[in-house]
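Most newcomers find our protein records easier to grasp once they have seen one. A learned vocabulary of local backbone shapes supplies the integers on the structure line. An example says more than a description, so a record of this kind follows:
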Amino acid sequence: MALNFLPRSDHAAGSLPTPLKMEDILDRQRLKDVADVIYKHNINVVALVETTGEPVVVKSFGWRQRYGFWISPMRPARAITSWTIAQTLIRLKARTPVPLYVFTRRRWGFIHENIYICEAIKPHKTLRAFLKSDVSGKEKGQAIADVARSLANMHRGGVLHRDLTTANFLVAEDRRVYLVDLNRSKMHPELTRKQRLRDLARIQFATGDKEINLALRRIFFREYAGEYEDAEDWNRAYSRARKWRLMRKRLREKLRRRNPE
């Protein structure tokens, strides 16, 4: 990435949905005032806003830690990453909300404004909530198959999401599933099997019923593997990758308890 140390550098793409104005999205308090629903309002503000057409989601990115701001001249803006990845996923036929507008502002290279707007999936449930709900096993299987097809297309196209938790999939009323929170994603010319497994290892097929969980995994890998790969081999490899991931997670938590900040 080329460094940009201009006194002020703005980047915008797409069209700002009417009747939204720039001041509505750049001022966080004003964004909260015009929003119908605030999904998040801690580090990032994620708001559902009614527009002249369909409702949209506005995401104003903040900083989890202060050092993120200081190294921002060397990093791509998360709003730009979301915009670029969303366009790529749509081209790859991996379902995600349609990107509508992006705006970033840098001063002397440091990111000061970081806004991403996309279509709203309304109403929806997260896949996590959907799998634990009382809908039929058949409907859960259809949703999981839809997820698998999108992720297979995404991975074959060289995209790693890097945060594939079931909270980052939205199940629409028509049962189509959308992948969201794209700001950590990365693109590669081609993905290795190890990279794909590490991405998939974050997914937890948790319904509260062990038999259904195993059935959903079989459905997922049958669709993900397609005609040219071994579904059972992927299922076994996922099991190993997930165990390894959980083991590392427990070790990190243990070390944090021993060395509290």
